[in-house]
Design brief:
Layout (H helix, E strand, L loop, with lengths): L5 H4 L7 E5 L5 H8 L5 H10 L4 E10 L2 E7 L3 E7 L7 E9 L10 E4 L1 E5 L44 H7 L4 H6 L11 H14 L10 H7 L9 H8 L4 H9 L3 H12 L5 H12 L4 H4 L2 H10 L1
């Protein structure tokens, strides 16, 4: 009688399985984002893994302790490395930040798998190794960076996309999603052209109802003051276009008007954090099958 190995019995299309380790030391940072919830580890795990089905991550520059990746969810952005107490089948999350303050800096890599949560160092059955290229298997994450991070602000001060806004961000038209790709929009305009571009959505959608400019910024936008604007001053002016402003606008506007505002804003040299936050919310609406190849096609089109 021939006995098939477990590997041979595994269906050809079966997803791999990995662990994500979330130790108690992370609790204070998670609660700073979401407040008191009954099971903070499960909330964090579900957010980062799309309920145990997929992670969206970017490679980060390695530290002395080893390689690391940034994993993005709707509420959290976390840094993770290889779990050195496991046989290559587990990610060890060691830094937690709110997704409203730290965003993906590039188009993420997606890895679909069955993820399981680990909350202790206790032994668990060995699962599949993490994919090649995610982390260098020869490196180890040093203890000096595990669980050590700067304090983050209270959840009361954080901005997240409202349900009204998510109606649009989670169901964007292909052209709207493409217009928000997290690519650099160069700002080489003269100051007069920059102000005019800023004024168009500001005036058309009466955005002064939803955010407040400084006295100097008001003078610039109303074109009472005509002066050259440096890079930093342009950034400060553009920072008025943010998730908080979109949330406020969304509560007073019809979905088609919100989409029109998003189209109008997309052509501006927006702050990269804002652009990435909007695009990430749009991108997460794509199914795994629909997503395959979508970005490469859109990026190719945008470069042409």
């Amino acid at each position: 009688m021939i006995v098939l190995s477990k590997k041979a019995q595994k269906p050809a299309m079966a997803l791999q399985s990995h662990y994500m380790k979330l130790l108690p030391m992370l609790e204070q940072y998670v609660r700073a984002v979401i407040g008191a919830v009954p099971d903070w580890q499960q909330v964090l795990f579900d957010d980062l893994t799309e309920n145990g089905t997929r992670i969206s991550y970017e490679s980060l520059p390695p530290r002395e302790g080893g390689p690391r990746v940034g994993i993005s969810g709707d509420q959290f952005y976390c840094e993770a490395g290889r779990d050195t107490r496991r046989e290559g089948d587990s990610l060890f999350v060691f830094r937690v930040e709110p997704a409203t303050r730290r965003f993906l800096s590039r188009v993420p890599t997606h890895h679909s798998a069955t993820f399981r949560i680990l909350t202790t160092h206790l032994n668990a059955p060995i699962l599949d190794p993490l994919p090649t290229g995610m982390l260098d298997s020869s490196e180890r994450v040093g203890s000096e960076i595990l669980g050590v991070q700067n304090p983050i602000i209270s959840s009361a001060k954080l901005s997240v996309a409202s349900q009204e806004l998510l109606v649009i961000l989670r169901n964007p038209s292909p052209d709207l999603r493409k217009s928000w790709l997290p690519i650099l929009v160069e700002d080489r305009q003269p100051s007069t052209a920059f102000i005019e571009a800023f004024r168009k959505p500001w005036v058309k959608f009466q955005l002064d109802r939803f955010c407040h400019l400084t006295t100097r910024q008001e003078s610039l936008v109303k074109q009472v003051l005509n002066t050259e604007l440096g890079r930093e001053e342009r950034k400060r002016l553009l920072s008025n276009f943010n998730i908080e402003m979109l949330n406020a606008f969304a509560t007073k506007s019809a979905p088609e008007v919100i989409a029109e505002l998003l189209r109008s804003l997309a052509s501006l040299p927006l702050l990269s954090t804002f652009r990435s936050a909007v695009w990430t919310s749009m991108e997460r609406s794509l199914s795994r099958t629909k997503y395959s190849g979508t970005f490469s096609r859109e990026r190719s089109d945008s470069d042409s």
